[in-house]
Amino acid sequence: MAKAKKNDIIELKAQLKENKLQKLYVFYGEEEYLKELYIKKIFDMVPDAGLEEFNRIVISGAADYEEYDNAWEGMPMMTDRRILMIRDSNIFTMTRKDGINPPNDEQKKFWTEKFKRLSDDTVVIFCEKNVDGRSALFKAAGKAGFTVKCEFMPLSDLKAWVIKNAIKAGKKIDDKTAEYLVSVIDPGLSNLEHELDKLISFCDEVIYKSDVDRVVSKAVGIKVFDITDGIMEGNTAKVFKIINDMKTQKESAFGTLYLIYSNVEKMLHLKLAGITNKNDAAKLLGGSPWIAGKYLAGASGFTTESLYHMVTRVPEIDFEIKSGEITEWQALEQYIAEALHASQRS
User: Fold this and answer.
1) Global pTM?
2) Per-residue pLDDT for 132 more than 90?
3) Of 15, 24, 13, which Cα lies nearest the Cα of 140?
4) DSSP annotation of 12
């Protein structure tokens, strides 16, 4: 997980602690939990006087520019300040992508003028998923107000967060188990909070690694590691239980096939490079030593020939799927069966 740009968050915390709200905020980045956390704090600092309709204006998604204009030029009712909340406007983008259209010249002029005329009686908050830091509008917003990049927290902070919140709930979790929990789930504090809540409800006084395996919804990438572990062990029952569970949960068979392919390709890369420790593996592959260690452990359980076969077989199966000879789930199951057979001969 990438390390957050801490000066943004630290400065924002200082502003909120001193009750020095900016007239304009732009929250962006991958970590939705932090965005919503600090937006809520700003909302709490601007009372709506019981007139939410007038003092809490929320626009979600790209809107008509007359709506933007009316919202921007409005005034608070029975209170000193109001909030204008704009979500996913995409005005800070520069390229067309996935149906997103960046602002044209007229729209850029509209926003440039608005940023120059911020009112003391309105706190404007943008919450965006798509931001290009090179955008002239983004730079203008930064000059007029404050931009806050909310990135995924580093592993050390996430572990501390897990341990602290477990203690608050009257539970104990050691450092290694906390790291394991963080490593096996999809990224994001919202997801981590949800999974930790499940563990807190399920466990007695202590949360163990076995509890994480039993209760937590693992990321697809981690399930794929479990599949490759099962193949390496020759454990057919384990592998096909995971496959059947993924089918029930409507995971993508095609996506799973290519995740296995990606894992096996990395294992082959390590095998051919002769790497034997996880730090060197992390340098070669990128990412955390924990994940690199998983690839390294997997590589040690297969012969070079088995890994090579598993890598070269995927393009062939891909052709069979696209030519209609076999369904995606049949292809995945066939590939797994072949890999198990190859591992048992290794």
Assistant:
1) 0.71
2) yes
3) 24
4) H
